[in-house]
Design goal:
The chain is mainly α and about 170 residues long. The chain contains 6 helices and 3 strands. A 3-stranded antiparallel sheet has the order 1-2-3, with no helix packed on it. It starts with 17 loop residues before the first helix and ends in a 6-residue tail after the last helix.
Length: about 170
């Protein structure tokens, strides 16, 4: 279950606890404990503190004590953050790039053009993710936008997200 957005660690200066990131990574389908997705953990951390899209509000059920989300336009409630599906799809796109690059290396087909193409696919998927998130949360306040930028800075998410590009290109071995 996703913790509430207003959890204290969604403050940009305090990263989510590793056990929360691991649990949410597992929820998204990641397998960091097997070393498969260890460099994609930044995505789980980012998604844990993702702001809500326009017309969505967050609530806690008095009966269950669990967080739920309400689309105020349609008056529809869900237990899942409205961006979870987007994060899961992004994870699968990025993981596909990583798996393809590793297969190329495993069978000795590390042709520079092939690996470069995979790196470009990864970068394009990250760029598409960033653009989609920016569009979905276009009405975030100036404070929310600043908090998101600081989360990337303090959590070193940008560096961690770029580290995998080096791995994909074979410049840095795990």
């Amino acid at each position: 279950r996703r913790p509430p957005f207003f959890a204290p660690y969604c403050n940009p200066e305090y990263p989510p606890p590793p056990e929360e990131v691991d649990a949410f990574a597992d929820f998204l389908g990641m397998q960091p404990e097997r070393g498969i997705d260890s460099n994609l953990g930044w995505l789980a951390e980012e998604s844990l503190c993702a702001p809500l899209p326009k017309n969505w509000t967050e609530h806690v059920s008095p009966q269950a004590g669990a967080t739920y989300f309400l689309d105020t336009t349609t008056n529809t409630a869900t237990w899942h953050h409205p961006l979870e599906h987007h994060y899961a799809l992004t994870y699968h796109k990025l993981r596909g790039c990583v798996a393809h690059a590793r297969r190329l290396r495993a069978i000795g087909l590390e042709d520079t053009k092939q690996v470069d193409a995979v790196v470009e696919q990864y970068k394009a998927a990250r760029k598409a993710h960033a653009g989609a998130i920016a569009t979905m949360i276009a009405d975030e306040t100036k404070e929310q936008k600043e908090a998101r930028k600081l989360r990337w800075k303090f959590g070193n998410l940008a560096a961690r997200a770029s580290l995998i590009v080096e791995e994909l290109a074979g410049r840095k071995e795990r």
